[in-house]
Amino acid sequence: MRIGSRIFAPRPGMTLLTLVLLVLLVSLGRWQLRRADEKRALYDAFAAGQDGTRAIDASTPRLPRYQHVEAAGHYDASRQILIDNMVESGQAGYFVVTPFELREGGWILVNRGWVPIGPSRAERPAIPADAQPRTLHGRADKLPSPGIQLGSRLRLTPPYPVVANFPTHDEIAALLREPRWAGAADLILLDPDEPDGYVRHWSPPGFPPMRHIGYAVQWFGLSAALFVIYLVTNSRRVTA
Question: Model-level pTM?
Answer without folding.
Answer: 0.81
